[in-house]
Amino acid sequence: MDQNTTCQAASPLTLAKIQALIDAGAAQPGGLLPVLHTIQDATGFIPPESVPLIADAFNLSRAEVHGVITFYHHFRTTPPARHVVRICRAEACQSLGVATLIAHAEQRLGCRMHETSADGTYSLEPVYCLGHCATSPAIMIGDEVHARVTPSRFDALIKKTRESA
Ligand code: FES
Q1: Has residue 111 been placed in a domain?
Q2: Ligand 1 mean position to 126 CA, how many Å?
Q3: What family does the Swiss-Prot or TrEMBL record give for this protein (predicted)?
């Protein structure tokens, strides 16, 4: 593939730029996870076209790289939705009824955990502790954390994202 090819429509990064990120990280011991984070931070996901480049740089098989990417829920292999909604499923949030909130969120957004709504507006993802255990349940929309989120507060937060779109 041409190194100047742009990865998927949503990614502005060319494979040549991704290769530069890989090269910078491949020299570091234990550099695989930092490289995956760097690519995802830059593009929003790990483009499948980058897997052979990563495998090559780290002397791994494509299957091994794919295995690492899929092991960590944090990594995405498709472009993210416009709004990524993360709901904490760790212990404190569970004890304060996050299961009810998740059921409500899935119904409200029209997608289940690890999925994206049909219109591509929302992705719903689990997260394990947002550091707001004393004020759970906690969620994160984009980069912003919200605590004590009830179903009605969730609806208000989602409404805000629609208004800001
Ligand atoms: S357990 Fe949910 S914020 Fe810590």
Answers
A1: yes
A2: 11
A3: Belongs to the complex I 24 kDa subunit family.
